[in-house]
Write a structure and sequence with these properties.
The structure holds two protein chains of two kinds.
Chain A (H helix, E strand, L loop, with lengths): L5 H14 L5 H10 L3 H17 L6 H59 L1
Chain B lengths: L13 H8 L3 H23 L2 H17 L10 H19 L4 H4 L4 H8 L3 H8 L2 H11 L3 H12 L4 H8 L3 H19 L10
The chains are: A mainly alpha, B mainly alpha.
């Protein structure tokens, strides 16, 4: 950060490009080699701290509010879908139960008819 | 919509966790409002894109809602959220093939150990005094000087590009950077004493 020669300017440029994702594969390799040196690594770590502070851009209130509303819209829709699904499952199972009972009734009454026929 | 603050004193309490598991809207809104801004900033510094960062945080909260019933928190809701944002960021980077340029050089480990800020480091950083001191020093720079400093040292533009952008000479950029260095050195020498070695 406190370097001033052209070579040092290049190092700073190399670091900032690596941090903001715009570095090329060669620039990535160059930095990975450069930071192996103890002093360089220390410099790099300090640089990173300053970079993170300067890039720490908080969301403003309108963005937070807008995002919260869209999140709540999502949760409510999911919940409605969940409720609908639960009700649907109940409805289908009740229908199945009624059909089953009806089937058993038919079966039994058929049995009864056949039994009486047989006995007679 | 009302945003209650009933959970302020009990961030790690059973009560909040139970409210989350029960899908209570006030509990979710509370966490959302409390952490959104910091999580967004964190995602932005990994993804380097505002829209991606927004989407990442939104995705994180929606997923958080979906898995609420089976949620197992061993540390805290806060670190759960930071970790989730980090993981989603990495997924987005992978999806965008951003990590390919690290893979091609066999330097994927370099990215994860040295470039990206992991969630623990981020949580330590966010409330640290170091952050406050650096922030104060950057803010104390004169407006023009700060603008040039940010463009050169944070956004990664060359002196020549910045000179061209702002329609000033390279000499002016250099002299403004000298001022920035001098002031930052004065302000940061106690906390970041290593800087004066250079």
């Amino acid at each position: 950060m406190l370097r001033k020669t052209t070579e040092d300017e290049e190092i700073d440029l190399l670091i900032s490009k690596n941090l903001n994702g715009s570095a090329s594969p060669d620039e990535i390799e160059k930095l990975s080699v450069w930071v192996r040196n103890f002093d360089n690594e220390t410099y790099f770590e300090q640089y990173k701290k300053i970079w993170h502070v300067a890039q720490d851009i908080p969301a403003d209130d309108s963005q937070i509010k807008e995002s919260l509303l869209s999140f709540l819209k999502y949760t409510r829709a999911r919940e409605r879908r969940q409720n609908f699904r639960t009700r649907f499952v109940y409805a289908v199972s009740s229908a199945a139960a009624i059909l089953l009972l009806f089937g058993v009734y038919l079966f039994l009454s058929q049995m009864k008819i056949q039994m009486s026929l047989f006995l007679n | 919509m009302q945003i209650n603050k009933p959970f302020d004193d009990c961030l790690n309490s059973e009560e909040l966790l139970n409210a989350i598991k029960a899908g209570r809207e006030d509990a979710f809104s509370f966490l959302f409002v409390k952490y959104y801004s910091n999580l967004f900033s964190y995602a932005y510094r990994i993804l380097n894109d505002t829209e991606d960062a927004k989407e990442c945080v939104q995705l994180t909260f929606c997923h958080f809602w979906d898995v609420r019933k089976g949620l197992e928190i061993n540390d805290s809701l806060k670190s759960y959220l930071y970790r989730a944002v980090y993981n989603n960021c990495v997924s987005i980077l992978r999806h965008k093939k951003f990590l390919a340029k690290y893979e091609v050089k066999g330097l994927l480990d370099f990215y994860f150990t040295s470039i990206v800020q992991d969630p623990q480091a981020e949580m330590r950083f966010i409330d640290s005094e170091t952050k406050q001191i650096i922030l104060n020093s950057i803010e104390s720079l004169p407006k023009k000087c700060r603008e040039i400093f940010i463009k050169c040292k944070i956004k990664g533009q060359s002196y020549a590009d910045v000179a061209c952008d702002l329609d000033i000479s390279v000499k002016t950029v250099e002299s403004q950077m000298t001022i920035a260095f001098k002031k930052l050195r004065e302000k940061l020498k106690f906390s970041l004493y290593l800087f004066i070695c250079f």
